[in-house]
Write a structure and sequence with these properties.
disordered N terminus, 5-stranded mixed beta sheet, 3 domains, Nucleotidyltransferase, domain 5, 391 residues, Arc Repressor Mutant, subunit A, 21% strand, 12 helices, globular
């Protein structure tokens, strides 16, 4: 996929959802870059003022010094000094000139973010889907790396990263999604699609080899996180459950804008839920002819399919009471969701039933989740690098 180039001028617009994902990280990065290496010398007032300027500039995309002073409420000399420091280290760069209200046309400034890049990787059973993304969410490279049947996934990841890091020395972090449980210690479990990775700590192995921070998360959790992060409505969505039924069954849970992993990172592994009746077997342990995926494939009757799914959904509602449950499945459609609601209403008060929605683009949400994961955990790692910058 060809590189997507950022446009920087006074009328620049960008994808609000992807930018919002990374605001916190960018602010921390730039704030740290302006602070002295000796943290004891940091002046809290200057730190707060810098944070204000960065926050406004990030929101406005481009602004004059006067606009920054008006929006932040800071004095013009204070804003001028901060903008100059940002420009000195290449964080802010001059763009076009704004229209004049009389006299000299004022200079516009934008944030320069493309020197901070992440490699994001979706680990699938037969391929590694990867991208190189700037810290403001701009994709500059996207491609697929095939994994041969006889090839080990860890070796394939190492080969891919060797190639990427050789091509791009601006990559500062690696974010990886996997179809399995990432245990508290980092080891992978319940990764039936890629059994050779069972018990392997990808983060540890890759950090040891490449000396870069590596973060690994369950794929369903990342889809849910990416869905929440993309919501830019006035009443921003912070709680939701994502349910996937297809090649495997799983769920991702986000509450308060944070992934719910549980005590041993097992939250969302709904394939292990016990099915009432028939010996109380779980979806994971019953015979192939009895799995939910198989049973769904045996009927074209949408009402019957809704009945098969409803028990699992009712359990989720009773345990988590989410406002939204989003579905991605070849079986899910608007008619399916209507029948599913009817099944749930047979057992639950109508006011407890959440909004049922179809996932518009699972892969796009997955990608956003990978970047949101970076935003959530990388501040300290990258700020140490920028804090060494000499002003």
């Amino acid at each position: 996929m060809p590189a997507v180039k950022s446009k920087r001028h006074c009328e620049t617009t960008s994808n609000k959802a992807e930018t919002a994902l990374l605001n916190t990280l960018i602010l921390e990065l730039y704030k740290e870059a302006l602070m002295p290496a000796n943290k004891n010398d940091t002046h809290p007032l200057k730190e707060n003022n810098t944070n204000l300027v960065l926050s406004v500039l990030l929101t406005m995309k481009t602004a004059t010094r006067r606009q920054l002073a008006q929006r932040t409420g800071l004095s013009q000399p204070t804003v001028n000094s901060i903008v100059q420091e940002l420009e000195n280290i290449g964080v802010a760069q001059p763009g076009n000139f704004a229209a004049s209200a009389g006299g000299r046309r004022p200079q516009c400034y934008t944030l320069q973010t493309d020197y901070l890049r992440a490699a994001t990787i979706r680990v699938l059973s037969r391929s590694l889907e990867y991208a190189v993304v700037t810290i403001d969410g701009t994709v500059i490279l996207r491609n697929s790396w095939a994994v041969a049947d006889s090839e080990n996934h860890l070796k394939a990841l190492i080969s891919l990263l060797k190639t990427l890091l050789k091509q791009d020395n601006g990559i500062r972090v690696i974010s990886i999604g996997v179809p399995g449980v990432v245990g508290p210690g980092g080891a992978l479990h319940a990764i039936s699609q890629i059994p050779e990775l069972e018990g392997v700590s990808l983060a540890h192995e890759l950090e040891k080899r490449f000396n870069l921070p590596v973060y690994v998360e369950n794929d369903m959790n990342l889809v849910a996180l990416g869905s929440v992060a993309a919501d830019s409505g006035s009443a921003k969505l912070t709680d939701m459950v994502f349910v996937h039924i297809g090649e495997g069954v799983g769920a991702g849970i986000v509450m308060g804008g944070q992934i719910i992993r549980g005590h041993s990172s097992f939250a969302g592994e709904i394939a292990y839920m016990v099915i009432p009746g028939d010996g109380n077997k779980s979806l994971e342990n019953i015979e192939k002819e009895e799995t939910l995926e198989f049973l769904l494939s045996q009927t074209d009757n949408i009402k019957e399919q809704a009945q098969l799914i409803s028990g699992m959904i009712i359990s989720i509602i009773c345990l988590l009471n989410p406002p939204v449950i989003s579905f991605e499945s070849i079986y899910a459609g608007e008619e399916m969701l209507r029948h599913l609601r009817q099944e749930c209403e047979k057992h639950l008060p109508h006011w407890t039933i959440p909004s049922f929605q179809l996932m518009a683009d699972e892969e796009a949400a997955y990608d956003r989740g990978l970047m949101a994961l970076v935003n959530d955990v990388l501040t300290n790692q990258i700020t140490r690098e920028l804090a060494s910058v000499k002003l």
